[in-house]
Amino acid sequence: METAKTNSNPVETKLHFLDYWRIIRIRKTVILAVFLLVVLTTTAVTFILPESWSSTVRIAVEKDVSDINPIGFTQNNSAYDPFFIRTEFEKIRSRKVLYKVIENLRLNERWGERYNNNIPLKTPETFDILHGKIDVRETRNTSLIEIRVYSDAKEKDNPAQEAAKIANEIANVYRDTRLELKQEMSRKGIKVLKQELEQNDEKVKAAEIAVDQLRKEYKISDIQPEGAYAYSTLEPQTVRSLEEQRIRVEADYSGLAGLLNGLLKLREEHGDSELRKSILTAINDELLSKLMTDLSTTEANLAKLNAGLGPRNPEFIAMAAMQANLDTNINQRINGILGGLKLKVDAFKLNLDTLASAVDHARTNDAFMTEQYRPYFKAKRKLDDLQKLRDAVHLRILQETVDAALPKTSIVEITDNAEPGRRPVSPNFKLNIALGIIVGLIVGIGLAFFIEYLDTSVKTIDDVERALQAPVLGVIPQNVSSLILEGPESPHAEAYRVLRTNVLFSRKREDANSLTVVSGGAGEGKSTTIFNLAVVFAQNGQRALLVDSDLRRPSLHKLLNVSNSVGLTNYLLRQNTLEEVIQTTSIPTLDFLPSGKLPSSSLGILNSTQMKDFIKEAKRRYDFVFFDSPPIMGVSDASILASEVDLSVLVIQYRKYPQAMTIRAKQMVEKVGGAMLGVVLNNINISQDSYYYYYSGYYYDYYAKREEEPAAKNNGEKKKPAGERAQLDLKQKY
After folding, report:
1. pLDDT (tens digit, 9 = 90+) per residue, 503-555?
2. Is 437 within 8 Å of 643 (Cβ atoms)?
3. Yes or no: is domain 461-707+725-732 CATH 3.30.870.10?
4. 3-state secondary structure 75-113
5. In degrees rounded to 5, what are phi and psi of residue 689?
6. Residue 652 to residues 471, 644, 682: CA-CA distances in angstroms?
7. Are 696 and 495 in contact (CB under 8 A)?
């Protein structure tokens, strides 16, 4: 036999909105039950819950700052710190604050009357109750904190007043606690600083005594002011003073020596005439300058007398003598200047040597004294450090003292005091019922989808094609009975005609005319399917034989209302002939072979040579032969039939068995070599599941309208009941 070829590639499916709507329609009972349960429960609880009142106080919280800037620095609170706000939330709900509130409002006694039969509560017990009634949150986009307090007191205790009073008291206690904490911290800090200042004063005094003793011991002349850190004795000053004098003298000596050497070199190289021209430029001497001027005047007069009177003239001779005398005086003056300059150079040289020796001596003495004075300067540095530390501590004490005295009302500012509420905040009837409706719908729909997810049975044609890789040949609606009783114009008949057409066109061979239906489990409708399929074939004019081969639990004879005493088993056991066991029906082209009684000793009779011969003989006599079978998962008869007949059809009841069972049923047919033609989906609720309307719904509407046509078309004849029209006239064919 040729096995029907199936598509090996799985079909990819995507859920559409209508698929979700189909699940909701199918599971609407679950959804409605859960919805009503949640809504009724919410409504009942809402009416049972006691009324609760609330009141809110709003405060502005800042870090530990003063109302004005303290001395020495500027406060900056512009940066938003979410961790600071969250920390303050916890401080507000802390035992330190709430214990004080409990004490101030005497909540132990008041709530003892309410919650503990007039016995005062212990503070931890009251704290637990109060902590559960407080809700602290941040006002959106601000640094303001809202403290909301709930009260469930009875009307006689005025719960609105109680909530407002507790909220205001919490804000006041929290503010006072922060201020007291800040002041206490300042006092403790100032106290510690004062103790440190006293210790520093003692250390400074001891250091001063040590410095004075060292100064007297080493006879140090410390010319720097008290507290100066640098070396400040006379020795470094002496070295610096002598070095400065030596540098000045060396500069003067170098200048005079250079001038003297230059003038002497000029005389040596160019004579006295060039020396006379340059000396007045280098040395400012009034006498030499006057002599040089007189010499120039005399030479001019002498030149005039020589030109006018001649060299023998007495005036010329007297003028010439004057010139000679001036020349002699100038030479003597220049020699005197050079001699005096040389004496100065020698004197500077001597002074320079003396100063150089003094500087060397002073440096040697300074180095020696520095080493001797080291303990003194070390003690002096220590004294300076102690004085600086003491001054810093003293300044900090002054700052903290002033800062502690500054007002700090901005740390916690109550912006809005709590006022009694005008109406209770819970239970909110409208909100609770609305939430109950929403939650009921969500839970109901969610539960429906969860149940649908857990349901692994076959639900759609896509499930079949995806899981079994087999085509769907037909979709059979619910409440289908015998088509012989319903008639050929029954709305259900068209579904079987569609199945017949698909079976005919799905065959690979024209001579494949024996067919059986199988199912994974019991009660999936295979007997009704094979019966009505044989009826449809017979109504189409084909000679068909319907064989009840379900020897375990035969049921086809009940549909035809005939006896099952003689049938297939009698023929296979050679007890009767084929003509004796085959019966006719009201449809001329449809014959029926009951199962007969199955002896316990012949359970494997379907797997016999007689059965194979019977199938061949039946195929020869009839156009189509239809075999009913037991569930394939229960006994082996269905597998044997699937291997012996030409075609097999798998019947799957809608939403009954898991897909694994149907897959296993198909695999069992294929293992024995059966030709799996396709799948029939059975027992579909067309009115409930709109997914299948397009497969069978049209025919329901069409035939329903035809049945509702006026009775006048029957020419006044009374219409017979359907059961009466479909009475069967069964008899043996031969």
Report:
1. 888 888 888 899 999 888 887 888 888 988 999 999 888 999 999 988 888 88
2. no
3. no
4. CCCCCCCHHHHHHHHHHHCCHHHHHHHHHHHCHHHHHHH
5. -110, 100
6. 13, 22, 6
7. yes
Query: CB under 8 Å to 243, separation ≥6 — which residues?
Result: 359
Return the domain boundaries, the chain: 234-405, 461-707+725-732
Q: What is the DSSP string of 361-406?
A: HHHHHHHHHHHHHHHHHHHHHHHHHHHHHHHHHHHHHHHHHHHHHS
Q: Cα separation of 263 and 265, whole Å?
A: 5
In angstroms, rounded to a whole number, what is the distance separating the alpha carbons of residues 109 and 99? 14
Mean pLDDT value across residues 106-119: 88
Distance CA 528, CA 496 (A): 11
Q: Which amino acid is at 152?
A: D
* pLDDT tens digits, one per residue of 547-557: 998 888 888 88
The widest CA-to-CA distance across the chain, in whole angstroms, is 209
Mean per-residue pLDDT of the chain: 79
* Residue 232: predicted pLDDT: 55
What pTM does this model have?
Answer: 0.48
pLDDT 10s digits, 638-666: 888 888 898 989 888 877 777 778 788 88
Specify the pLDDT at position 135.
92
pLDDT at residue 721 above 50?
no
- Indicate left, alpha or beta for 118 from its phi (over 0: left) and psi (-120 to 50: alpha): left
Residue among 410, 408, 413, 417 at smallest CA distance from 180: 408
Look up residue 277 and give its two tokens.
């021209």
Distance CA 5, CA 642 (A): 16
CA distances from 85 to 61, 136, 142, 371, 582 (A): 8, 11, 10, 62, 95
Is 607 exposed, middle or buried, given 0-12, 13-18 or 19+ CB atoms closer than 10 A? middle
- Tell me if residue 538 falls in helix, strand or coil: helix
Per-residue pLDDT tens over the stretch 316-368: 888 888 888 888 888 888 888 888 888 888 888 888 888 888 888 877 877 77
Distances 574 to 497, 537, 567, 571, 603 between C-alpha atoms, Å: 37, 30, 11, 5, 15
Name residues whose C-beta falls within 8 Å of residue 237's C-beta, 6 or more positions apart in sequence: 223
Q: Cβ(502)–Cβ(516) under 8 Å?
A: no
Q: Are strands 731-732 and 583-584 parallel, antiparallel or unpaired?
A: antiparallel
Q: What is d(CA 537, CA 530) in angstroms, rounded to the nearest whole number?
A: 11
Residue range 32-36: average pLDDT?
92
Distance between CA atoms of 112 and 118, rounded to whole angstroms?
5
> Could you give the CA distance from residue 522 to residue 628 in angstroms, rounded to a whole number?
13
Burial class (CB in 10 A: 0-12, 13-18, 19+), 293: exposed
Give the whole-angstrom CA distance, residue 722 versus residue 719: 9
